[in-house]
Amino acid sequence: MDITVAVDCMGGDHGPHVTVPAALEFQKGVPGVDLVLVGLQDAIEAELRTRGAAAGPRLRVHHASQVVTMDESAATALRGKKDSSMRVAVNLVKSGEAHACVSAGNTGALMAVSRFVLKTLPGIDRPAICSVLPTMRGRVYVLDLGANVDCGPEHLLQFGIMGACLVAAVEHAENPSVGLLNIGVEDIKGNDVVKQAAELLRASGLNFFGNVEGDDIYKGTTDVVVCDGFVGNVALKSSEGVAQMIIAALREEFKRSAYSRLAALVALPVIGAFRRRMDHRRYNGASLLGLKGIVIKSHGSADAFAFEQALQRAVEEVKNGVPQRISQRMALLPPPKPA
Amino acid sequence: MDITVAVDCMGGDHGPHVTVPAALEFQKGVPGVDLVLVGLQDAIEAELRTRGAAAGPRLRVHHASQVVTMDESAATALRGKKDSSMRVAVNLVKSGEAHACVSAGNTGALMAVSRFVLKTLPGIDRPAICSVLPTMRGRVYVLDLGANVDCGPEHLLQFGIMGACLVAAVEHAENPSVGLLNIGVEDIKGNDVVKQAAELLRASGLNFFGNVEGDDIYKGTTDVVVCDGFVGNVALKSSEGVAQMIIAALREEFKRSAYSRLAALVALPVIGAFRRRMDHRRYNGASLLGLKGIVIKSHGSADAFAFEQALQRAVEEVKNGVPQRISQRMALLPPPKPA
Questions:
Q1: CB A214 to CB B240 under 8 A?
Q2: Which of B194, B246, B277 lies nearest to residue A243, judging by beta carbons?
Q3: Nearby residues of B50 by Cβ (< 8 Å), 6 or more positions away
Q4: Cα(B126)–Cα(B115) distance, rounded to whole angstroms?
Q5: From the list A150, A233, A244, which residue is nearest B218 (CB)?
Q6: What is the pTM of this model?
Q7: Complex ipTM above 0.95?
Q8: How many CB atoms lie within 10 A of CB B334?
Q9: Tens of pLDDT along B69-83?
Q10: Other CB atoms closer than 10 Å to residue A100's CB: what's the count?
Q11: Is-same-fold flag (A1-123+290-339; A125-288)?
């Protein structure tokens, strides 16, 4: 199967300086994937020339005259920038010219544009942002990470289904376990939304583990962790914050004295291995799940290596038909009760 | 001023084996603080004997015949165990025989008992759990960490006031900055509760910084971070989880090969300094704020060193009159609008 991925080359903090070299590097490593570079044609072609590369049938340039900035509101991006690189990249998925698109542009705008252009799958009320995170045992998929800040129980159920479908598809896991993020493992813990969500998840036919707590994310207690977008976003950013603090403290201690700088030299291979293991760039590429199409959000500050991982993730989702799987699974749910 | 602290000796995972040696060690270091050891008299006295110590006028034993277990519900502890060490310790604060109490017992029960016995301060609807956490710059106080899972805007306002009073008291900070935990710094971010809370905080006369994100906790952006207890609990436990994962990965890398084990030996003093710096035991002792009395919650798994820190925290709050300060500050607020 030949796969085509549309790349929003203008999104992110670095635009074509990162997205174009990432695209070139990606194509070297992964054969059989065509890329469409979407954005200001001159900027993209200049960047290709700098790298001694040129467009061709497998690496096309698709001009889009506008750029969504990182601090632009979703509404402005949606209404005011119909020829933005982000919008055009998503349009290519809609029209079938691309199987997926990848953007490092601003999350709110990408979600709004994707939802408007692609629409949600039947039975899905709201798309969710799902990221893969490292754990002590392997990896975990967490959703929602910020698209939905006021979730009802049925939304959390839908997130559970989407997360389980994603893991089944890309990790080839038979019956992924799903945990519900809560402040204790007992059934009586948490707020009403979480308690009702637990009931829905228990009756869903998913491999529902029950409640999990914040530290279970990194213990790898379950394959999927489901939460409201507000909670998920805070959990993710708190984790990033504490990780940065620990790494900074370690660095400071290794610089403190002549002896510790010597120790750092001796420990360099070990610290290098540790850093590679903790490299968050390897996990770059969040899925916008629940849409009639595949949209991958790269971190805005991604470098070329990180952006390549997001392209890789897009390809994995295409190969494994993630939206189709979600659709099929949703069809198995009993119809919702009338409100 | 002579200070008396009641110690729930039976609470926590280890009971008197930890609380009694912690009390003895604490009194060696801090003169002028009397302790009342509350719990099963035989168990406490046996533990004292093991340590070659004995009760006396400054280290009294106060018998309580029941023990609240770690997995007991708050309702059972409250209704069924009126002579528990936890309840009796809180009673001693109520009667004025102690200025504060410290317990490593289960959080839900301690909160319920404290609230029932001591009552909340005027204007405070719900007590909150406030912990101090390390940051890149110093320390931050975060509340609520799990007592309240469905907060309204006015509760978040009250948390802001209580947190600011605590920091002003124990850190002797003039006008502590207060951040509101959100999923973006812009005013339009977040759910309705957070948006309304921001308005209340802005009008409160506090040094309100505005919205902060999860990573701002550990960046030390503000002195106080305010959040719903569900969100705060998840943020705290996620942080603990990622920290444990990073430390475990570092340890594994230093054990991987003969060379890395040698490097570990060379780096031992550096790693030791790093470990001391990251030692979460130093931050043990969460405040139950908003009560007519001082109650400190130690981590259930605390060792003697950690439990000592919680005793120290109780003394600091007594010396600096934390409940009185909160009371005075609440009196400055305009009366609430009739519902």
A1: yes
A2: B246
A3: none
A4: 9
A5: A244
A6: 0.92
A7: no
A8: 7
A9: 988 889 999 999 999
A10: 27
A11: yes
